[in-house]
């Protein structure tokens, strides 16, 4: 994906510097054509790792269920983190797709206890058809190297 950054100097009644981050090929359509302005163009290529998630389908399912419960209870990420006796930023990091943090079984037990819901309610009603282990290996190649069996 390409990320285009446009720095716009509007020259009308005031000298105003506006920095606008716009995704797409032709962002000039969004500016008022009656204004006189100059555009300095910079193009940055975002890396694949910035856009991909480190979470597997089943991890995302659990994270989203916890997020639903948290929002229904009107709890902030920080408040839930502290209620679970975790670092205040843990839940926020778990909910960010690019971060490595995720809930383990101990967290899930405490979350179910806190919200007074069955543990099973945090998991899909049926198994996922995705090969979750293979998906995990694809997202974490360094981990795969640790556990790959060498042919004898």
What does the model show?
The structure is a single chain. The protein is α+β, with helices and mostly antiparallel strands and 152 residues long. 39% of the residues lie in helices and 18% in strands. The protein has a 3-stranded antiparallel beta sheet, with no helix packed on it. A hairpin with a 3-residue loop joins β1 and β2. The longest helix is centred in the middle third of the chain and has 16 residues.
The class by helix and strand makeup works out as: alpha+beta
Q: Determine the N-to-C terminus distance.
A: 42 Å
Helix content: 25-40%
Strand order of the largest sheet: 2-1-3
- State Rg: 23 Å
What's the shape?
globular
How much of the sequence lies in strands comes to 15-25%
What's the mean pLDDT score?
75
Task: Encode the helix/strand succession as letters.
Answer: EEEHHHHHHH
- Low-pLDDT runs of 5+ residues are 1-50
For this structure, the quaternary state is single chain
The count of β-strands is 3
Number of helical regions: 7
- Profile the largest sheet: 3 strands, antiparallel
